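Thread amino acids onto this structure.
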């Protein structure tokens, strides 16, 4: 499901912005990667408040977690493709391996090392030590020419699966400390608040064209999501909930964070006198944060409206079936 919808959204976004709005198709693909995945925090909160089946919760939780990773990786890779000016499957594959191998290796090593020394860190220093270690990993990997974002991502995955890592590497078992989840919760709150405030500061509202692009993309996302959900759940117990699974389609933190990455990465290269040919694309790239802002708002509005409608329709359908059976 996650892979299918990611492919659909990236290709669909590229086609839509090129044919309807005359933008560079690769920029459309980048935005598809940025906004293609549903926000995990928002999605899980909505599902838990609806008191639906555990299967739906597991389905959407897994999807949101995977699409967040896809969003990060594809945004970085497609931005590199935009910089190099070469787009093909071989180049993208080489980009994934070449750009992220250093980050992945160091992320794994750092994660295992940190899990090993976790029990020796005093409770009062755990938060700052973890934060400092994350910054050190990012700086080191970036200095070595790898992807600091991927290194930190891998480090976080390993830290979140501490128990399994200890079992695999036969590390000494420790008394479970809640600070990892507390640290993740506090960092998430800080980043969520910071980036939404930051996005609000840099976005200049008032462009009808950007709003139109966001609305068109959001409608496309809903259509592609419905198709993906229908294909993925066909002949499963979740098939009867396909409308609800389509309706729950909010964007969140990942979209807000990634929206500025292509612009500032390319702007930094231009300021250094590199890749001057990309100057003509700065105008289109500078519209991405505003389009992302509109997309986040529209996705939440659509989810708020469509979710109750889907639930009511499901209840009416169940009621009709009961009446027929009687």
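Threaded sequence (326 positions):
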């Amino acid at each position: 499901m996650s892979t299918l919808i990611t492919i659909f959204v990236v290709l669909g976004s590229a086609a839509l912005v090129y044919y309807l709005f005359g933008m560079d198709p690769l920029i459309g693909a980048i935005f598809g990667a940025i906004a293609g995945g549903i926000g995990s925090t928002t999605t899980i909160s909505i599902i838990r408040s609806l008191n639906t089946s555990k299967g739906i919760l597991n389905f959407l939780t897994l999807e949101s977690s995977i699409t967040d990773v896809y969003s990060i990786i594809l945004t970085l890779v497609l931005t590199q493709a935009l910089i190099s000016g070469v787009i093909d499957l071989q180049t993208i594959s080489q980009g994934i391996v070449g750009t992220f191998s250093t980050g992945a290796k160091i992320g794994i090593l750092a994660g295992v090392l940190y899990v090993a020394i976790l029990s020796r860190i005093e409770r009062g220093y755990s938060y700052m030590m973890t934060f400092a270690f994350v910054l050190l990993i990012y700086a080191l990997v970036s200095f070595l020419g790898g992807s600091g974002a991927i290194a930190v991502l891998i480090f976080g995955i390993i830290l979140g699966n501490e128990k399994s890592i200890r079992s695999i590497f036969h590390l000494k078992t420790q008394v479970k400390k809640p600070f990892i989840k507390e640290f993740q919760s506090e960092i998430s709150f800080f980043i969520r608040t910071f980036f939404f405030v930051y996005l609000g500061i840099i976005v200049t509202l008032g462009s009808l064209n950007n709003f139109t692009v966001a609305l068109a993309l959001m409608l496309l996302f809903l259509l592609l999501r419905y198709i993906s959900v229908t294909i993925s759940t066909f002949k499963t117990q979740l098939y009867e909930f396909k409308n609800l699974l389509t309706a729950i389609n909010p964007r969140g933190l990942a979209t807000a964070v990634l929206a500025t990455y292509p612009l500032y990465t390319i702007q930094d290269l231009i300021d250094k006198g590199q890749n001057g040919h990309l100057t003509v694309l700065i105008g289109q790239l500078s519209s991405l944060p505003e389009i992302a802002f509109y997309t986040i708002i529209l996705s939440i509005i659509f989810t708020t409206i469509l979710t109750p409608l889907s639930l009511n329709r499901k209840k009416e359908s169940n009621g009709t079936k009961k009446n027929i059976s009687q």
